[in-house]
What we know:
By secondary structure, the chain is an alpha/beta fold. The chain has three domains: 3-106; 135-185, Alpha-Beta Plaits (2-Layer Sandwich); 188-391, Vaccinia Virus protein VP39 (Rossmann fold, 3-Layer(aba) Sandwich). Helices cover 38% and strands 17% of the residues. The protein is built from 15 helices and 13 strands. The chain has helices spanning 3-23, 28-38, 44-60, 68-78, 110-118, 124-127, 176-179, 188-197, 214-222, 236-240, 242-249, 264-268, 302-322, 342-351, 376-379, and strands spanning 135-139, 156-157, 163-166, 183-185, 204-207, 228-233, 254-258, 275-281, 323-333, 355-358, 366-368, 371-374, 384-391. The longest helix has 21 residues, at 3-23.
Amino acid sequence: MTPAARVQAAIELLDGIITAAREGGAPADRIVADGLRARRYAGSKDRRAIRELVYGAIRACGPVPENGRAAMLRLAQVQPDIAGLFSGAPYGPAPVVAEEVAAQGGVAPEWLARRLAASDIAGEEAEALLGRAPLDIRVNTLKAARDGLTLPVDGEALLAPNGLRLPAGTPVEQWEAYRDGLIEVQDGGSQLACLALDAQAGETVVDLCAGAGGKTLALAAAMQNSGTLIACDTNRQRLSRLRPRAERAGAGNITELLLNPMREMEALEQWRGKADAVLVDAPCSGTGTWRRNPESRWRITAQEIEKLSILQFRLLEIATGLLRPGGRLVYVVCSLLDEEGSQVFDRFTAAYPEISATPLTLSAGRSRGRGMRLTPYHDGTDGFFFARAAKV
C-alpha cells in the first residue's frame, strides 16, 4: 500500500470508531482488528502503519471528531508530513478543500477536561494520560521469583516487588514462562493496589469485583495459595476467564462466585461478617487507563459518572457487611476524578462510623484525600486512586 492509501484506510477505520463511540458500539481495538483482517491486501507493515495512524489520530483529538477525515486532518496538524498525502492520489484521501475544518485537539471533551482539572489533573499531568502505556508483568511467586527468573527479554524492576517492565509490544503471551503461569500481564500500579490489601496466608479474602481475575491472581500469590479467596463478579463472561488463568498460575484457593446485580448479598450471605479483607476494585470511568484505551474518553458522560459513584458507594457498603471486626478493605478505582475516588471514600467513611480510614505506606503515589493516587506522569503507571480502611 502507498502511504496515501494507508491514510485513507485509517480514515475509514476512524469513521467506524467514532460511530461506535457515539452509539456505544464495539471498542476501537476490535474495530481495528476486524477492519485490518478484512483488508487482506494489507501486509504486516501496512497493518502496523494503519494502526499507528488510527491511534495517533485518536490521541490527537480532544472532543469526539465529526468523522474520520476530520480526525486525520487533526493528526496532520501534529504530524505535518501527513498533510501532503491528502493529494487525491489513487486509493488515497481527496485533497483538502477550503471550508474543511480539522477536529479539535485537547486532552478530552471540554466538560471532562474541566472535571479532571478540578481534580488537579491538568497540563502535563493530563497530557500524560494520552501517552503510550508500557508493558508490565507480575512474576507469579507461586511458581517463580523475580530475581531468579530468566526471560527472553530483560525487564526493568518496578517498585512493586514482583513487577517487571518490558518494551511495549513485547510478545509475552508467546513465551513459555507465560504459558506455564510464571508471569502475568499486570500494570505496576495495579500490583501496588493489591499490595495495599496486605492479603495473608490462611485468611478469608473477598475480591468483590474480580472481572477476569488479574488482581485475584495477585492476591492468591500473596496468600501463598492458603486460605479462602472468593472472586466475585456480576458478569458471567468476564468471570469465566478466571478459571483457566488460575489453573495456569497454580492458584488453587480461589472460589468463583457469580453475583446478581442489586442482590449480591444473597450469594455472599455465608461470608457476612467473616472476611478478613475485601478488595473493592470498583467499576469506574477508567480515566486512568486512557493510555491503553484512548477512545474511551469519547464514551464517558456526566450521567454515567454520577451512576458509577452511586454504585461505588454501594459496593463499599457491601464490603462493610462482609468484614469481621478488625477486618480491612481497600477501595480502588482506575479513575483520576475525585468524584469517583476521594469523594466517594470520604462519604463512605462519614456514613459508617465503624469504618476507619488507615494510612497507606507504599513506595509510589501521592496523598489524595484519605487515600493515595498514582498517575502516569508522576509514577509511570496507569492512573489509580486507592484507600484502605478497617472495621472497628
